[in-house]
Amino acid sequence: MPRNKYPEETVQKILDASLRLFLEKGYEETTVLDIVNELEGLTRGAFYHHFKSKEEVLDALGTKLFWDNNPFEKVMAEKELTGLEKIKKVIKLSLQNEDQQKVGVMSISLLENPRILAEFMESNQTIAAKLFEKLFQEAIDDGSIKDIKYPKALPSLFTLLLNVWLPPAIFPGSKAEVLERLYLMKDILDSIGVPVIDDETLGYAKKTLETILTE
């Protein structure tokens, strides 16, 4: 059999087909065979050459959806915004990415895998926290955030609250419970002089919860 000259293209096709199926049928109801059948000419062997399991596909999708719509890259280019406004916009853009939110909820079961959970926690601090650190420093430098007592610790704590504690994909909860966590997070941040969650953000969050949670 000839070697695939374009492995990246095959991976992209697998991820695109998997996303369509996961959103249409649901993650649990989609099988590897469904994914293979979605792509003409793809064999099970070709699938397993790139991914060991359906779980690996879902994990890769979460990463792909973030980098394909990287909100940090978008706001960095908007020079007219203050650092605080950029942080707010990153949160709003993330909430507006419905596919990413839905895949996040599907990924709940993956976090039972210690390796995937460890990788998620590591990327949360080595990637997300570092990206937020740049924006928080910009906000401190331009004065849009003032009197921060612990500027180095702030991005790490903020990222843990936003990406680990708040999402129902990590800590499952009803819409009411997740909203309560969001309001508490807002109060905590407001109390230390970091008002990044405004009424518009709350509105986006409520809309997102209506989409991804049924109760």
Helix fraction, binned, reads 55-70%
Helix run count? 11
CATH class group of the largest domain: Mainly Alpha
Instruction: Catalogue the unreliable spans.
Output: 1-6
CATH architecture of the largest domain: Orthogonal Bundle
Based on secondary structure, the structural category is: mainly alpha
Annotation keywords:
TetR/AcrR family transcriptional regulator, elongated, mainly alpha, Tetracycline Repressor, domain 2, 215 residues, disordered N terminus, Arc Repressor Mutant, subunit A, 2 domains
TL;DR of this structure?
InterPro entries: Homeodomain-like_sf (IPR009057), HTH-type_Tx_Regulator (IPR050624), HTH_TetR (IPR001647). With 215 residues, this protein is an all-alpha fold. It is 70% helix and 0% strand.
Q: Would you write up a description of this structure?
A:
With 215 residues, the protein is mainly α. The chain folds into two domains: 7-51, Orthogonal Bundle (Arc Repressor Mutant, subunit A); 60-212, Tetracycline Repressor, domain 2, CATH 1.10.357. The chain starts with 6 loop residues before the first helix and ends with a helix. It is built from eleven helices and no strands.
